[in-house]
Task: structure prediction
Amino acid sequence: MPVSVFVGASVDGFIARTNGDFDFLPEGGGEPHGYDEFMASVDALVIGRHTFEKVLTFDAWPYGDKRVVVLSSRPVDLSAVVGGAVEQMAGSPAEIVSQLAASGAHHLYVDGGITIQRFLRAGLIQRLIITRVPAFHSSAPCPATCSCATS
Ligand SMILES: NC(=O)c1ccc[n+]([C@@H]2O[C@H](COP(=O)([O-])OP(=O)(O)OC[C@H]3O[C@@H](n4cnc5c(N)ncnc54)[C@H](OP(=O)(O)O)[C@@H]3O)[C@@H](O)[C@H]2O)c1
Result:
């Protein structure tokens, strides 16, 4: 079963600020960059607890009725999700992939920094799609010719 990652990153390689915000990414996803087509090919998302908690602050649940698996080693309150198909799992990345394959999943989308790192270390990611946006996360000076946003 293919397991993929699709993240937006700043030019200097960050997917979020230390407080969890990712306001340096364009609102609404920016110009078309394959996300919709990628999402259409995925039948289950596997997201870390921190990403889940961030998503809960959005105005609306962004995953529609797509199956979403929240990973955490502790009980997570899923009741705030309205209209979504959300469940919780824990275990090694290999155990999670194996459980999801056994339950009929065909293409997993793994999301969240720590979570992605764990799946990468386990050698379970076949496709890594990183979209760089023209913004810097760090406060390091921008190159003189660069007109991108800094933060
Ligand atoms: N730029 C982008 O495209 C993008 C995409 C996604 C997320 N983000 C940002 O990234 C941030 C979240 O990333 P993060 O690195 O902080 O954390 P994360 O990967 O979302 O969540 C990490 C947590 O997930 C749980 N977890 C992960 N693997 C597990 C496993 N195999 N079994 C049990 N639990 C497991 C653990 O929770 P417990 O401690 O509860 O056990 C762990 O502390 C958010 O701020 C979000 O905004 C950005």
Q: What stands out?
A: The longest strand covers residues 3-10. The domain at 3-133 is CATH 3.40.430.10 (Dihydrofolate Reductase, subunit A).
